[in-house]
Amino acid sequence: MGDSINKFLQGKKKYSVFIATFLTSVISFLVQDPQQAQELQEFVPLLAMLVSGVAYLIVEGWNDVHRAQAEEAYYNMLSATKQTSLPAESCPKPAAQAAGTGAVTVEPFDEAEFVRQVHAGAVGLAKAAFPDAPEALTSIYRAAEEVGKKLECTDIRQALAYWNYLRGLAEDAWKQLEFESKDSQGCKLHPPELYEFRATVKRTATTLKNLDDLSQTSYDWRRLRGLWGATVYSVGALAGEALGR
Fold first, then answer.
1. Which of 96, 152, 197, 208 has the most CB within a 10 Å radius?
2. Which of 213, 114, 128, 124 is nearest to 166 (CA)?
């Protein structure tokens, strides 16, 4: 409980300037003209503004608490993913030379299981980070991006599987938005998020194409390191740059 209160207090610092400025104005008003301030009819609007400001402060403060809890839940999920989500039999291993021959053997990669684990992590994170719409595909997509940014890539096939999944998820999210973006008469609406995901579909498709092309070259994909190292997200996001595109 103490941690929650501390996070709330930290969150409300962003709005304290507004509240402090407003209270200063109210005090100044009361001091300069106390008789006028006593007239309820003129004081009610100020009181209403004060109540609105305090309510906004409380709501945003607790939103900060929930966001912090979602972030903590994500890191817990990430830790569990590293330990359990990719079992040894499904986790890709480096290629090795067969004994007595010069041939290179490639360890099998269970793409379906890998994608299932990534999706499970994204769904779990979406529930924590987007409590108002955890099942919306837009929420799951954003959560999947965050999962990929932290998930270490040990085989380029992981990155290919991840970006193929991400592209499909973006397409589904865009279609869901397009279906839902209609008024009561069935006329299409054009919310900003619809344009955002239309661009996202193109971006993920381009990224997947770049990554697939890169996988056909001798380029060392491990050099494609992002903020969190060589992750399944960063390997794809930087593939175009590696190809000079």
1. 197
2. 114
Collect all residues with Cβ–Cβ distance below 8 Å to 28 and sequence separation of at least 6. Answer: none
Decide if 229 contacts 238 (C-beta within 8 A).
no
> For residue 226, which phi and psi values (nearest 5 degrees)?
-100, -160
Amino acid at 45: P
Q: Is 153 helix (H, G, I), strand (E, B) or coil?
A: coil
Q: Determine contact, residues 240/202, Cβ cutoff 8 Å.
A: no
**Model pLDDT for residues 107-162, shown as the tens digit of each residue:** 788 999 999 999 999 999 999 999 989 899 999 999 999 999 999 999 999 999 99
The domains of the chain are located at: 1-85, 110-245
The token duo for 58 is 């409380």
Which of 234, 239, 185 is closest to 213 using CA atoms? Answer: 239
β-bridge mates for residue 104, sequence order = 97
User: Is the pTM value of this prediction over 0.85?
Assistant: no
- Please choose, from the candidates 199, 196, 200, the residue with its C-alpha nearest in 3D space to the C-alpha of residue 166: 200
d(CA 31, CA 28): 5
Alpha carbons 131 and 66: distance in angstroms, whole number: 9
- What DSSP designation does 226 have? B
3-state secondary structure of 95: coil
Sign of CA dihedral 47, 48, 52, 55: positive
Q: Nearest-CA neighbor of 162 among 174, 150, 177, 178?
A: 150
| Rg of the Cα atoms in the chain | 26
